[in-house]
Amino acid sequence: MSMFLDTAKIQVKAGKGGDGMVAFRREKYVPNGGPWGGDGGRGGDVIFVVDEGLRTLMDFRYNRHFKAQSGEKGMTKGMHGRGAEDLIVRVPQGTTVRDAETGKVITDLIEHGQRFIVAHGGRGGRGNIRFATPKNPAPEISENGEPGQERELLLELKVLADVGLVGFPSVGKSTLLSVITSAKPKIGAYHFTTIVPNLGMVRTQSGESFAVADLPGLIEGASQGVGLGTQFLRHIERTRVILHVIDMSASEGRDPYEDYLAINKELESYNLRLMERPQIIVANKMDMPDSAENLEEFKKKLAANYDEFEELPQIFPISSLTKQGLATLLDATAELLDKTPEFLLYEESDMEDEAYYGFDEEAPAFEISRDDDATWVLSGDKLEKLFTMTNFDRDESIMKFSRQLRGMGVDEALRARGAKDGDLVRIGKFEFEFVD
Questions:
Q1: Burial letters 50-79, b for 16+ CB under 10 A, else e
Q2: Any idea what DSSP says for residue 240?
Q3: Mean pLDDT of the chain
Q4: Which of 150, 149, 142 is nearest to 125 (CA)?
Q5: Which terminus of the chain has a lower count of CB atoms within 10 Å, N or C?
């Protein structure tokens, strides 16, 4: 079984804020002691941190739920509860984080030590000290803590490599990687020997270095899910230069030029922007019979499909087995990398809008619907948050919540919809009677 995992779906939940406290001063010689209940502590955030020591998302295969701790409750003597520690979740370099519901990109984590808050903890509820007024100097009112943000995330790992090796299975990509780097990929005389991306560092004779990724062999239809290529095409997206490896000996009976066209078609079908990356054609297995003749035919067919003023891709004949032509290929690759900029990985339309953790002023404060049992149902982010943060163990808090609903226009809206005295109204799992 492969121990490489490059996608994972997880649940994250930030910590709830601590509840505020209702308390009063009860000290000798202090008559009519006032309110003394402190605020609750802040809930912990869920934070992703890039760890360059990780190479796969395997840690998320069996551990898919991440929950930060809640803040402490407020205490007497006006003391605040302790804020919870943030939950640190380590991810490998090259991890893209998407919202599983919308598919939008939340963040792209590529630098070692980079941090990003994927779920914000709730603020602590206020204690009764906060509600003291001249009219009500001893309030029995406190707030519950704010719920932490909860969301489902899709993680995608796209390996960080400057150069990607692409081509049909068994064209010699793994062998090439093994001779130009210290990587030890599995090499065998059968298709799909490589079933996970392999990475290696290349150092040229002139002292330049770059990272190369050997990707599992592509076949026709890979962009539609055929073979292994579909699940690894995403790794090509971060590369700046593509080395297109072709078996110029045609040892499997395929035409080298048709191979070239087929692989480019799959890259284009998967993501049209992959064709913006410069390609170097690597004519491999030149030590085999008929390779020289096939290369000449390949060059003729390639030239015939380019206009007179178009620049043809560079072609480098090599033999991974005899190490023929490798130095020239690597120098040319390093030179091309130097003048090739980073490619934009995501359009603005792919990115999630900047997070805003308040309320949308234009959004309705509440919505009214009716259940099959004739119960009126109130919903809406603002109303539900208000409900969650109300302490229903205290009569004064319940009266305050009732006044807030009236101030939001809930009573008038229910009357306008036909609610009558004694009708049941539901918010979440809480039910109460409508009083006209």
A1: bbeebbbbeebeeeeebbbbbbbbbbeebb
A2: S
A3: 87
A4: 142
A5: N
Closest CA to 406 of 378, 428, 430: 378
* Alpha helix stretches (DSSP H) within 166-244: 173-180
Structure confidence by residue, pLDDT tens digits, 203-230: 898 889 999 988 776 655 544 444 444 5
What burial letters (b/e) apply to 103-138, b meaning 16+ CB within 10 Å? eebbbbbeeeebebebbbbbbbbbbbbbbeeeeeee
DSSP 8-state symbol, 414: H
When mean pLDDT is compared across 186-190, 306-310, 418-422, the lowest value belongs to 186-190
Q: What is the DSSP letter of 211?
A: E
Report helix, strand and coil shares of the chain as percent, to nearest 5. Answer: 25, 25, 55
Strand order in the sheet with 46-50: 87-91, 46-50, 115-119
Between CA 331 and CA 204 the distance in angstroms is 6
CA distance 425 to 405: 12
Which has more pLDDT, 308 or 35? 35
Distance CA 45, CA 357 (A): 13
- H helices of 339-380, where? none
- Return the sign of the alpha-carbon dihedral for residues 42, 48, 52, 57: positive
Query: Contact 403/136 with Cβ under 8 angstroms?
Result: no
Contact in structure between 385 and 435 (CB atoms under 8 Å): no
Torsion of Cα atoms, 91 then 95 then 100 then 104, to 10°: 140
Q: Residue 272: which residues within 8 A CB-CB, separation 6 or more?
A: none
Token look-up 């360059």 returns 52
Q: Which residues contact 429 (CB under 8 A, 6 or more apart)?
A: none
